[in-house]
UniProtKB/TrEMBL annotation, chains A, B, C, D:
Protein name: Gfo/Idh/MocA family oxidoreductase
Pfam families: GFO_IDH_MocA, GFO_IDH_MocA_C3
Start and end residues of each Gfo/Idh/MocA-like oxidoreductase N-terminal domain: 6-137
Residue ranges constituting the GFO/IDH/MocA-like oxidoreductase domain according to the UniProt record: 145-277
SUPFAM superfamilies (UniProt xref): Glyceraldehyde-3-phosphate dehydrogenase-like, C-terminal domain, NAD(P)-binding Rossmann-fold domains
Gene Ontology molecular function: any one: nucleotide binding
Organism of provenance: Cerina litoralis
Amino acid sequence: MSKKIRLGILGGGADSLIGVLHRVASQINDNYQIVGAVFNPDYEENLAFAKEIDIPTDRIYKDFDTLVAEEMKLPKEDRIQVCSILTPNFLHFPMAKKLLDNGFHVICEKPMTTTHDEAKILLEAQKKTGAVFAVTHTYTGYPMVRQMREMIKAGELGKIHKVDARYYQGWINPIIHNKEKRSSVWRLDPKKAGISSCMGDIGVHAFNLVEYTTGLKIRSLLCDFNYLYSDNQMDVDGTVLIRMGEHSKGVIRGSQVATGEENGLAIAIYGEKASLRWEQERPNYLYKMSDTEPTQIYKPGHAYNSKLSLDGTKLPPGHPEGIFDSMANIYLGVARAIRGQKYNDGEFPTIVDGVRGLNFIESTVESHKKGNVWVELVD
Amino acid sequence: MSKKIRLGILGGGADSLIGVLHRVASQINDNYQIVGAVFNPDYEENLAFAKEIDIPTDRIYKDFDTLVAEEMKLPKEDRIQVCSILTPNFLHFPMAKKLLDNGFHVICEKPMTTTHDEAKILLEAQKKTGAVFAVTHTYTGYPMVRQMREMIKAGELGKIHKVDARYYQGWINPIIHNKEKRSSVWRLDPKKAGISSCMGDIGVHAFNLVEYTTGLKIRSLLCDFNYLYSDNQMDVDGTVLIRMGEHSKGVIRGSQVATGEENGLAIAIYGEKASLRWEQERPNYLYKMSDTEPTQIYKPGHAYNSKLSLDGTKLPPGHPEGIFDSMANIYLGVARAIRGQKYNDGEFPTIVDGVRGLNFIESTVESHKKGNVWVELVD
Amino acid sequence: MSKKIRLGILGGGADSLIGVLHRVASQINDNYQIVGAVFNPDYEENLAFAKEIDIPTDRIYKDFDTLVAEEMKLPKEDRIQVCSILTPNFLHFPMAKKLLDNGFHVICEKPMTTTHDEAKILLEAQKKTGAVFAVTHTYTGYPMVRQMREMIKAGELGKIHKVDARYYQGWINPIIHNKEKRSSVWRLDPKKAGISSCMGDIGVHAFNLVEYTTGLKIRSLLCDFNYLYSDNQMDVDGTVLIRMGEHSKGVIRGSQVATGEENGLAIAIYGEKASLRWEQERPNYLYKMSDTEPTQIYKPGHAYNSKLSLDGTKLPPGHPEGIFDSMANIYLGVARAIRGQKYNDGEFPTIVDGVRGLNFIESTVESHKKGNVWVELVD
Amino acid sequence: MSKKIRLGILGGGADSLIGVLHRVASQINDNYQIVGAVFNPDYEENLAFAKEIDIPTDRIYKDFDTLVAEEMKLPKEDRIQVCSILTPNFLHFPMAKKLLDNGFHVICEKPMTTTHDEAKILLEAQKKTGAVFAVTHTYTGYPMVRQMREMIKAGELGKIHKVDARYYQGWINPIIHNKEKRSSVWRLDPKKAGISSCMGDIGVHAFNLVEYTTGLKIRSLLCDFNYLYSDNQMDVDGTVLIRMGEHSKGVIRGSQVATGEENGLAIAIYGEKASLRWEQERPNYLYKMSDTEPTQIYKPGHAYNSKLSLDGTKLPPGHPEGIFDSMANIYLGVARAIRGQKYNDGEFPTIVDGVRGLNFIESTVESHKKGNVWVELVD
């Protein structure tokens, strides 16, 4: 390692939680320096925020286009190397596209775009430059999620015949049950938020987790949404039957009206020889089960973990690292990729995962709208 | 209370686990005396078993028909009052039918019959005599399951918009993965075991738990099975989308190949105001969640519980009662009903629940076979 | 097995919880028949209770002395073989003594007597007849407690250097904080309840659990009580430093004012090679920990358990058995002993455990009263 | 907020875990910039490390004295404002003393010094300048630890009559059981590591947690150590009886040989009205118990939490923050104090806590060495 990577931030100003998450994560492993940003569409607020977090204001730009234009005038060794896109979903695509076209690396929040078609266009653009492109499926950075991936890859579960993932939250309850709110909030307006609420916002994380950990591709799905109210236009709850193969099936359950659930992402993977269970809210506990042996509790930092898992732990066992550390692990992988250092498959989700995600989201909507029929995912 | 109820046992001899469960449960509240039985089709083994558990052998009969015939000769005050049917599934119907026709009360293991039609015939027969008829959905006897029912009935959850139940076991793994075993074992032979393995054996418990606790009826379902092998004829895993109303939906997940799972029946019920979560393997912990208050852990025996729940607890809080006690609560309710004492709705599952169960099982098979389409349940 | 053992019950009538526990436990494995009893000092209530639970009243006696006198007139093959003593503590000694002297077997609630001296007298009496004598340290009947014992005996933990046991309850809070109640209730009156409340009632269970599971003897102890109020004469909380050897130490913590705790008996045993943790309120989960391997969760009924543990399980894994089943296991061991059948060390706590318990209780009081000094336990 | 605070680092270079913890924590809330350091006694390694983490090397000094001398030459507005002392324990005192005498603020790892006398000297020095002085009892930064403090301060528990804290680790096992290692490692050499291993390293955290959360002072203690081997000179395990008042008692349990325990700090606080339980390894779960209500699970980020607790949470409920975030909260409080902003009592542990800690450590050693007698702590 040596000189810090020059990072630009798009969005994530003021009280933005995703902004805190990315900013902290970028600082955790001493790899990045924020050199430029458009934190906020309002230029004054933009500048004020930069001052608040003590970032030099000379490269705080008034808008995204200016950022690109001005940075391109700088010599390559001073120019922003990678931009984190934390803006509302519909801006992901145009920003990412322009960044790629101008040779920047990209870290993009999910969903990567608002349509599968846009996602495929980005993929083509990325292929041209070979830029590093990460989609922040944050949860893949947890040491025990990585451990699942490696244990499965090593064959510890045998053939996988069943996967059960869920992402349950309850936060949309106060909005959805209020007629006025549900008809006015941008989150539930398909024109502003895209075609799906529950699947687009959280279901896609569960989908990604399934493919990330198992190494399997979901081939087809059948989905049933719950809109809760007839005048509501967006899914706030849904169940997705999935098929990875003829005899390898499962279910993805998502909800934003699961009252009292906070951020309940969880997965259980059942294989011929053994199984794994993990929950995001207790990220440092991974359960390996079998029909004949005592269940084992894997925890981070122990020598029995895989290299990929151990690489994501900074402290000895028993010192709980959390979601900032998980995101930091993704930023660490991206840093290695940008520097051309050796890194492992699985250190960060790529643009290919982003494309898959959009394919999933669109397919769930299609399945539901056609009356809960099976829809094939493309490869 | 006074004189013990005269109980007959059909099946459940030798190493039968269901036999132990019923026998112990019947003794727990000092209500029943086993006076007659056909524990075993082999008369010698039948007699030997009666001696082993020290039951007088004079009313240990050589077969079911003899039991009925001989008992009918006895004066009513000596005659068996109620029979527990613990035989293989296909015998439930003929036995229950004959018992009802001869004026006996019945406690019947689930599934109550092998077809929905048989179930409806039993219901007609029961209506004629008004006999007490319990189907042993054992899990409804747990104090915290009863507490869920009462809390929901009292409106603590508000409108229920989501139900998520699962019953995961892994025990069939060693059979299903062995080609010879899976083609020879009676459990996976539809001619012997009925039309469904996973849904008939355990899915129906989850179904019953949903209806028992929520007080809602499942109106329609869509089901996808996993047979795991092309040469296997019975479902060993399946996911069922369910609808209780236009905006009240959910999912029932069942598996006998969920490697490492033991007896993983669980339910989560999400309402407008609050939610409940419960797991059979930790039966004395009930979680009530809301979006704004700390999650609450309800435990048995506390004064804050409902009357129905407290009636199912014998010891103070912290003294774990288990599955025998749960079944004993069902036997207690049946005893009260037989004695014409006051008892509450919910003390034991009735023949109506048995009919619903068969309707559920047949509908899952129909849905799957027709290509995962929606099937309506009758009322 | 064959003919049921003739059981007599002393105490435990009406609403007595300990009565329910013993009565149910005695019925669970088809070994005992209650043939005689003095459930209650009031003869009318005694008879009424016998009728309520449908026991023939001809051998329901008006008092203990009559029971012994009348039973001794019966031929040996009809006579009560074993009596369960469930009366208030101060009656344990005279009853047990007389029963032993007349050749009866005894099952005795804890504490076995009110003084160590009485306990030693009982031991002498028992040695003369060789009667079976069990002290109902109920918790030793749990399958996972037995499993701990067997794993330690097999050397899986190596040398044990640390033991940490606790028994925390909160039930005495409403009494102790009320000046009138705490000065009037028999529980806190040393003349009626013996010299110790917390250690005599629950601390002794923790003590027994330490010695039962580890196979070690506690050699000396130092104790500090908390009386909470200057006008209270009995310990309601205390911590006991213990030494099993020069480098093998530990702590026993007891409380009846641990607000919100229900029946919080727990133990952690740390050895050179591995450790074990267990909690009474989740009795079917045993954790084996080591410094280098994932923690393992042992559960009842699996083939990986010891013979002694498996003998205490009636159903397959995942079907939670509870405290009635634990007590039933003790009754099962006693039945085998009475019948002269083969049984294993550890199937029930004996009179020697009872003597140890009194030694412990008296030593804690002595240590505290002398100003928290070390007191040796005799062998 | 505005310009970042100029931070100096002493120690914590290379693979130092405590170095990572402080460095990351200082970056998390955008408050600090590391401007100077002596990461390592070896100047070359010192420089190399600064380059590795991309810090300008012009203020990387060859040793501590040079750092002070050179920084004092700088104008006040450029000079290091606060130094984090992460060096071996015996260096804490001389460094902290000199820093205070030269007007620097100090963040000091625990134990603050190696003796109580040194600690008192520091306190005097700090009083002279009024410098901000934090001792990094990291665990006080957790939102739920803060919540405990505030709930108790608000009287939710009533009078506290019992406190039970533990800090169990197993990491010293491989050293202590090896005769050669235990006689050579600096950790177990009193000349190098100070008078106590277990109490000095971890027991003091438990002590601090008791006083931090309850607001009570521990008045006296009685301690028993376990050295495990006769040739070992340092405590590796110990139990401490504590008294906060005549009727307010408790126990602190510490171990470095609790095989399989990772970083098992936990506390239970029992009050007249309610109780609290918390464990460091699941830091986001706080249990509030009472004798009559369901146990409540408090989690971070909910509006029902206190201001002090909410101030320590960056993300919505269900996004687990961990130990880095806990330390970052302490750094945040220190930043506010340095900037003269309003901050609350409890945002960081002060030098007074450091003095108390040394008083505790010395008292445990004194109690044990004198034969487990009571030792008074000074005020």
